[in-house]
Design goal:
Number of strands: 2
Number of helices: 8
Strand order of the largest sheet: 1-2
Number of domains: 1
Membrane topology: Multi-pass membrane protein
Main location: membrane
Distance between the termini: 43 Å
Largest sheet: 2 strands, parallel
Subcellular location: Cell membrane; Membrane
Pfam families: TatC (PF00902)
GO cellular component, one term: TAT protein transport complex
Oligomer: single chain
Low-confidence stretches: none
């Protein structure tokens, strides 16, 4: 394909992705109320458990509309993800050889479920974090929480934990392309555990350590699972190398 043909192909893929995002955002508009109710639940629990007035606050006339639109677009991105991910994949596939295509498919079908699982884990710890951070305010004070800032906080936390769950897949991918060996992954297990514990301690500043360990345990399991997959791959690659040398020698 010429450069012009690549540009036309890219424009077609972007247009289809935009249509998918638009359709997903329309659906997200009708689901925004349900999502906002779910986001409001930790605030309701603050009022019950801490005995204070706690509520979401809109600081301007268009604040409620802007927040609903932001939630709708976020839902649209999630709902339409199969569409725009496929468009990206369809645009890149002609440039990949068979081996790279196989690795890419494996990464895609592994990373997406892990990302969703990480987002679910992040959503699980959100109420604990919100309750802890608001508990530092004196009991006689009122917690007026800016709705947009609160949504941004929750979204960034959930996405950050979702991305953290995907990182072991990158380790496997680096091993498959020959950048990182299984021995290197296993030798770094102490540093990996330290980083995981620090990350979960920062992401879950809850008074109880249960939430931290509930988040850390699956991340540790995923890390060693990645090391196991890398070890199996290195072992198979070594066997193939020995067989190839034997065939060449004969």
């Amino acid at each position: 394909m010429t450069f012009g043909e690549h540009f036309v192909e890219l424009r077609k893929r972007l247009f289809r992705s935009a249509l998918g995002l638009l359709a997903g955002s329309v659906v997200g508009w009708f689901l925004a109320g349900w999502v906002l109710d779910a986001l409001r639940e930790p605030i309701v629990q603050i009022a019950k458990q801490q005995g204070r007035l706690a509520e979401l606050n809109y600081d301007n006339i268009t604040g409620a509309f802007d927040l609903k639109m932001q939630i709708a677009i976020t839902i649209g991105v999630v709902i339409s993800s199969p569409v725009w991910l496929y468009q990206i994949w369809a645009f890149l596939v002609p440039a990949l050889n068979r081996k790279e295509l196989k690795y890419g498919l494996g990464f895609f079908f592994t990373a997406v479920p892990l990302f969703l699982a990480g987002c679910a884990a992040g959503w699980f710890v959100v109420p604990h974090i919100v309750q802890l951070l608001t508990s530092f305010a004196p009991s006689q004070d009122t917690a007026f929480i800016q709705a947009k800032d609160y949504f941004d906080f929750v979204l960034k936390l959930v996405v950050a934990i979702g991305v953290a769950f995907v990182l072991p897949v990158f380790l496997v991918l680096l091993n498959f392309v020959g950048v990182l060996s299984a021995k290197s992954i296993l030798r770094s297990w102490r540093w990996a555990l330290l980083v995981i514990v620090l990350f979960t301690a920062i992401a879950t500043p809850s008074a109880d350590v249960v939430s931290m360990f509930l988040l850390a345990i699956p991340m540790v399991v995923l890390y060693f699972a990645a090391a196991g997959v890398a070890w199996l791959h290195d072992r198979r690659a070594a066997r193939n190398a020995v067989r190839l040398e034997t065939e060449l020698a004969t």
